[in-house]
Amino acid sequence: MSFGELARTGVSLIVLPGSEVQVIDTIAYRNDFEAGLYCHLGDGRAFTLLEFNWNVELYPPEAPQLVSWLRDRGTVPIVAHPERHGFFRDDPTRLRMLVRAGAWLQVTVDSLLGYHGPAPRSAADELLGSYREALLASDAHNLRRCSGLSAGYACVRDRFGTKRAEDLRLRAEEVLSLLIDPPDSYSQPHGD
Ligand SMILES: [Fe+2]
Known about the structure:
By secondary structure, the protein is an alpha/beta fold. 29% of the residues are buried. The protein starts with a helix and ends in a 5-residue tail after the last helix. It has helices at residues 3-8, 26-34, 63-72, 86-90, 92-100, 109-112, 118-130, 149-160, 162-180, 184-187; strands spanning 20-22, 47-51, 76-80, 104-108, 134-137. It has a 5-stranded parallel sheet. It has one domain (17-187): TIM Barrel (Alpha-Beta Barrel), CATH 3.20.20.
């Protein structure tokens, strides 16, 4: 259904820009960030989706310092799908250091449902049980990967209870309201 058809049938839909930004070289990342080259969530700078390469050899050891650097600039980095990275599962301290530095985590619904395999599924449970600063996402790349957020919240409700599911939903709503209606200090892209 097109946006025009949705509008005609009274379905209000807001589409915001944003993408995962993969970091391999933190110096290059900082330069590009300062130059305003990235499209952060909602194209503001309150939240950015930080992605790491699947290859552990490309994981920057100074990632916690990068997280602190972003927080100092008023940007909350959200680590995309940490439960799917073997190097976070094998070495949980690596992720703990990012969270201690101020990162939030974004867990993919399909991981929770087991569609990315048993290891991401149990890691997703582990992360949602251990870290308060988490969000759920569909990460729907295509029609084969769109289980939907409702399925994710239902799953969290079953495994962790209503309160945890509600915490996650409220956090997502807070993020969205900041993206849709940003305070003045967040509305200018960085580097301008
Ligand atoms: Fe990704």
